[in-house]
Design goal:
CATH topology: Lambda Exonuclease, Chain A
Strand content: 15-25%
Helix content: 25-40%
Structural class: alpha/beta
Number of strands: 8
Oligomer: single chain
Low-confidence stretches: 1-9
Strand order of the largest sheet: 2-5-6-7-8
CATH architecture: Alpha-Beta Complex
Number of domains: 1
Largest sheet: 5 strands, mixed
Length: about 270
């Protein structure tokens, strides 16, 4: 029986093979394709959502506060203190579409005609060199690590996705008719631990980390994504050390198959192991 309340259904955008309508694909879905083609196909072709990570509320709050501080500098058209402290003479871009470009599920968009995909990504912010008019995307990262100094080298395996993220943002800025710099930036906020008595405040060490973007892979990747979406067969499982979802599914399937074999054996012999 219905209790009179409508259940909210979670819909996943699903690609329809042969459709002439453009299919929108977010920056994070491009990364999913790069990480695991099987999971990408299952979500975008079959419409089965991947498990979500728990939301990081404190990280989101730090993002919001940093955005507010960038808005103050944008209004005055002066370098933000983080960039000034790191000797970058760049000011937050003053543009009528900044609120849209920063909005999740809106963001920057570009229709890639060859693949008929609409690439979408929401930036945290954008800075501009007032002399050259070159623009650079910014992404905020907030965490706590003892290896804060090492982060600036962007050498850890997971930093590859950060680099891809910045490259896609620069690509989208250029496709939206902005002159872009060769560099984009991560504003890295690292919470500091000390021996002082807790006073209901967190202090952060903030680094501005430049990255020289690589745009060469993006067009060809969008074409590869379209080809996979049109394919009829689900890609093979990724290696265990590459995709946690694939590893978990394989382990679950192996367990279920083992239980089924034991059940059939019991039905035939009447004896349980």
């Amino acid at each position: 029986m219905s209790d009179g309340k409508e259940r909210k259904k979670s819909r996943v955008r699903k690609f329809k093979p042969g459709s002439e309508d453009p299919f929108q694909i977010s920056r994070s879905r491009v990364q999913l394709f790069l990480d695991c083609k099987r999971c990408f196909y299952i979500q975008n072709r079959l419409g089965v959502k991947m498990p979500k990570m728990l939301p990081f509320k404190l990280n989101s709050l730090v993002d919001t506060k940093v955005k507010q501080s960038f808005d103050f500098a944008r209004e005055k058209q002066i370098p933000h203190k983080y960039f000034k402290d790191n000797d970058y003479n760049l000011v937050p871009l003053k543009h009528e579409k900044i609120p849209i470009w920063r909005e999740n599920f809106q963001g920057l968009k570009y229709h890639h005609k060859k693949s008929n995909l609409i690439l979408q990504g929401a930036i945290d912010d954008c800075v501009q060199d007032l002399k050259t008019k070159e623009c650079s995307a910014i992404d905020y990262k907030a965490t706590q690590t003892e290896d804060g100094e090492k982060v600036k080298y962007l050498g850890a395996p997971w930093h590859k996705s950060w680099k891809n993220q910045l490259s896609i943002y620069q690509y989208l800025l250029e496709k939206n008719e902005l002159k872009i710099s060769k560099d984009a930036y991560i504003v890295f906020c690292n919470a500091q631990l000390d021996e002082k008595e807790w006073d209901n405040k967190l202090s952060f060490d903030v680094q501005v980390i430049p990255y020289e973007v690589d745009l060469d892979w993006i067009d060809s990747t969008l074409e590869e994504i379209k080809a996979l979406l049109e394919a009829k067969h689900i890609p093979a499982y990724s290696e265990d050390d590459v995709c946690d979802n694939c590893r978990n599914l394989k382990e679950n399937n192996n367990l279920i198959n083992s239980l089924l074999e034991k059940s059939l054996k019991y039905l035939k012999s009447g004896e349980a192991e």
